[in-house]
Request: fold
Amino acid sequence: MKFLIAVICTFALAAASRADNPPAPCLPVPTPEQLAWQRMELTMFLHFGVNTFSDREWGTGKEDEKSFNPTALDCRQWARTAKAAGFKLLIMTAKHHDGFCLWPTKLTEHCTRNAPWKNGQGDVVREFVEACHTEGLKVGLYLSPWDRNNPKYGSDAYNDYFTGQLTELLTNYGPVDEMWFDGACGEGPNGKKQVYDWPRYFALIRKLAPHALIAISGPDIRWVGNESGVARLGEKSAQRGQTPRWAPAECDVSIRPGWFYHAYEDGKVKSLAKLIEIYFASVGRNSSLLLNVPPDRRGLMADPDVARLKEFGEAVRAMQAGQLAPQKVTASTSRGTDCAAEKAADGSLDTCWATDDATQTGWLELDFGAPREFNVVNVQEAIALGERVKNYRIEAEVAGAWQTLARGMTLGQRNLHPLEKTTAQKLRLVIEDARACPAIAEFSAHLAPVTPPPLTVQQKVLPLTAHKPARASTVHGNDTNFGADKAVDDDEATRWATSDTTRDCWLEVDLGQPETFRRVAIKEMAPRITKFTVEYKTTAEGAWQAAFTGAKAGQDFSATFAPTTARWVRLHILDASFAPTLWEFGMFKD
Reply:
C-alpha cells in the first residue's frame, strides 16, 4: 500500500508541475517502470541455444555441449538490426527448457564453458548485454524454470539451483531491465513436477534488480493469452478485480513459424503485410509487441529476417511521418490552459487534454484547414493517470455531415484504427463514457503506405476462439510449430498436429468469459476425423457436455446447433483414420 501511495504521489507531483489543476489518478496506475515499458511498445525476443544446432524447438536436455559453436556470433548485429527497426528492448533465452546455459555458470556443466566456441571461454550473455547497452537498448533475459537437464528438477533442491542462476545473472550482468518466465513445467527425472517457489524468485529479483520488470509468470507484465501477436479488442492494462492492479499485456509472436532458427524456414518469414497486421493488433490495441527473431547457427540474424525487419521499421516510421498537422484543435470543454485541447496534438505524452472532474463525456476536434486524405487514426490516453475512457467513437466531417468511422472501448497507451482511405477536413474523437474525466495525451490522423484491412472487416470473420488460450491432449513431437494455438490463430498456413499414433484426442479453448455460440467450423489439413463431439463447460471444474456430435469433418466443415453459453469449449476427436491435424477450429455466434 505504501508503494502504491508513493507511485500516486509521484504522478500527482509530476502532473502538478505541468498544470495548476491536474486530473486526479484513476486507480490503478502504472509504476514508473511499467509506464516506461509501455511507451517502448516494440520489444524483441531472441531464441538462441543448443536447439539452434539440433534443429529442435524443445531440447531434451541430453544435447552435447560441443554442439554449440556459433563461429561468427555478433550480438552487435542483433542490437543494430533491432534498433534500426524501432525496437527498444531485447530479451534473450539465457536458458531454455533443455537447461543449456549461454553463460559459463558455476552451477552446471551444461553451459558454454564446455563448448568449443571460443575454447570454452565464451559468454553469450555478456556479449548480448554489452551489445544492448552499446546501442542504447534495454536488456531482458529469459530463464526457463523448466530444466530437462538438471537432476535436481522435481525436488526442493531445484529451487536453490534456480535462485543461484538468477543470482549469477542479476549480479554479474546488470543492469537487467526485464526477467521473462513462462510457466512450462515438465516431468522431472524422478517422475515429479517441479513446484516453483515463485515468491522466493520474485523477492530475489526485487532485491538484486529493483527496477527490473517481471514477466510473464510474474506480477508486472501479463501474457495476452496467445502466441500469434494479437490482443483483444478493448484490451485493458487496469485489472479491476478484487485486488485492482496495473498489468499491461504483452503479445509474443515469432517472425517465423518456429521460435528457434531452422534453415528450412528461411522462405517462411512473415510478410510485411502480416507484420503490420500484427502491429495494429498488438501495439494498436493497448499492448506491447514482443517479436521473436531467432539468430542462426552462425550467431547472426538471418538475411531474410534482417530484410523484413528493415521493411517493417520503414513502414512504421512512414506511418508516423504521415501524420497530418491540424490547423486548429478544439474541444467541447477543457479544465484550463494547461489541459487545453491543443495539448492532445503537441507530440508529447506528458501533456494532455482533459475535462473538468464532473464531465465524463465530450469531444476533441482536429481541423486540417482543408480536406485531407488519411487511413489511420491514433488515440492515446495519459496512462500515468490510469485508464479512464470506457467507450468512444471516431467521426469525420465528410461532405458536410459527420460520419462514424470507428468505435472503441479502452484507449490506454495507444489504439490504432485502420480505415479505408478517407478524405475530410475535420476529425473528431467523441468520448461517450468514462470512469473519470477524460485525459487524452494524443489524437492524430495519418496517411500510411501499409495498413491492415479496416477493423470492421476483420471483426466479421473472427470466431470466438480466435487468438484465445488453447491446449491439446497431444502435440506432434512436442513441437511448438504444431501447438494447439496454431488451430485458433486465424491463419490457415499454420496447423495443430498430433502424434502419428493418435486417433483419440482433444483441443480445448478458454474463451475468457461466458459466450453464446451456435456454429462450429473445422478445417482439416486432410480428411482424417471420422467421429467427434463439440463439448462445453461453464466452470473449470465442471464436467464436459456435448453440444454437437458429428462423423466426418474434412477440409471445410461447418454445422449449427442449439445456442449454447459457456466459457470453455472443446473439440473431442473420438476416432480418425490417421493422426488428426487441423488448420483451424472455430466457434461462432451465428
Q: What stands out?
A: Residues 1-18 have pLDDT under 50 and may be disordered. Residues 55 and 431 are 52 Å apart (CA to CA). The first strand starts at residue 42 and ends at 46.
